[in-house]
Specification:
Blueprint lengths: L1 H34 L2 H16 L8 H11 L2 H15 L2 H11 L2 H45 L1
Helix pairs in contact: 1-4, 1-5, 2-6
Length: 150
């Protein structure tokens, strides 16, 4: 019985240490998200996506779409999932090293450039999708016609 009683405090101690380490790692991942420009990149991507919608400012549906996009793709809405991705791909030591890099002048320059590059990439992919949509629709229509003819 005494062995079990001694084991319980030790198990609780290790569980608490593991939980604290998990919190520390999450805090590091969230710090990296703050310092590496992820917030700015997401904000720029949201703005680029809204510009690509192209609806007129007086379109009655525009405010609802804008609210939806801003709510679902805002940094605060995605932060937890993004931190989880960093935790799956980096060790805590690697997170610390990345944070140290992003604190350098080159790291800050990269963070700022990544936001601009991300917004530009969003615009490019949206434009290319819009340009290719008629061709896709034509192919889908042909495939549907072929399937119904069989």
């Amino acid at each position: 019985m005494k062995k079990r009683l001694l084991f319980l405090p030790a198990a609780l101690f290790f569980c608490c240490c593991a939980a604290a380490a998990g919190r520390d790692a999450r805090a590091l991942a969230e710090e990296l998200l703050q310092i590496n420009g992820t917030r700015q990149a997401l904000e720029a991507t949201v703005e680029a996506s809204l510009r690509q919608l192209g609806s007129a400012p007086d379109d009655p549906t525009r405010p609802a779409v804008e609210r939806f996009v801003r709510k679902c793709f805002a940094f605060d809405a995605l932060k937890g999932e993004l931190a989880g991705l960093y935790l799956k791909n980096y060790t805590t030591d690697e997170l610390r090293a990345l944070i140290a890099f992003y604190r350098t002048p080159l790291g800050q320059k990269k963070a700022q450039a990544d936001a601009r590059i991300g917004a530009a990439l969003s615009e490019i992919t949206n434009r290319r999708f819009s340009e290719g949509l008629p061709e896709l629709q034509k192919e889908l229509k042909a495939a549907a016609s072929s399937a119904t003819a069989k």
